[in-house]
Amino acid sequence: MTESTVAGATDVAVLNDLPARTLTRPELRELVSAIADDPAVWQQHVAYDDEHRHYVCLHRDANVDVWVLCWTPSNDTGWHDHDVSSGAVAVADGEVTEHNLVIGSAALEVRVPAGHSFSFGPDHIHRMTGVAEGSVSIHAYSPPLWRMGQYAISTTGVLRRTSVSYADELRPIDEPFPDDQERLRDAALHP
User: CB–CB of 147/166 below 8 Å?
Assistant: First the structure.
């Protein structure tokens, strides 16, 4: 993981012209698309690792943060939300998959190739995975990320949320959950 307050992208016109307020979803989508279309902004930060997703903060101020994320097919964020932040993602190179949580059914998977983008509100729960070797995506969040929710589904189907720092690498949660049936039995026996 690589993180910096500003990774040398301060001379980028689109970042210098940001409004001094929380950005809307369309504004976030326009921002990530403009940056994705300009490899000079992000190309020097590209690196790949199958064990740990590589990411760099290109810009962070009081209203928005912008990141470049590098993907291999082994990379997986796990289920997560962005707490109070709206966001947008533009794929600059390769392809990623956005998985949307569906209750009682398999996740809805949307493949997002280079040149495409999407946005979401703070209520959105998803996971992202790399599809093609050497994929790159640009992400922007407003207000800037501070906390995120990381989710896991127990063997009995119970969804659990853990609050994590924006600086932590999102990965699938592997720790086993206590047996929910046993927990429910204990709760019934000890009101």
Answer: yes
Read off the pLDDT of residues 99-144 as tens digits, 9 standing for 90 and up. Answer: 998 888 899 999 999 999 999 999 999 999 999 999 999 999 999 9
Residues 22-25: contacts with CB under 8 Å, at least 24 apart: 22/63, 22/64, 22/142, 22/143, 23/63, 23/64, 23/86, 23/140, 23/142, 24/86, 25/86, 25/88, 25/119, 25/120, 25/121
User: Does the annotation list 82 as a binding residue?
Assistant: yes
126 has binding-site annotation: yes
The candidate with the shortest Cα–Cα distance to 61, out of 117, 11, 92, 22, is 22
Interatomic CA distance for residues 25 and 6, integer angstroms = 22
Residues near 62 by Cβ (< 8 Å), separated by ≥ 6? 20, 143, 144
Q: What tens digit of pLDDT does each residue of 68-94 get?
A: 999 999 999 999 999 999 999 999 999
Task: Pull the structure tokens for residue 186.
Answer: 């204990």
Q: CA–CA separation, 158 vs 83, rounded Å? A: 20
Q: Where are the alpha helices (DSSP H) in the chain?
A: 13-16, 25-36, 39-42, 180-189
CA separation for the pair 181, 91 (Å, rounded): 42
Is the Cβ–Cβ distance between 28 and 19 less than 8 Å? no
Three-state secondary structure call for residue 153: strand
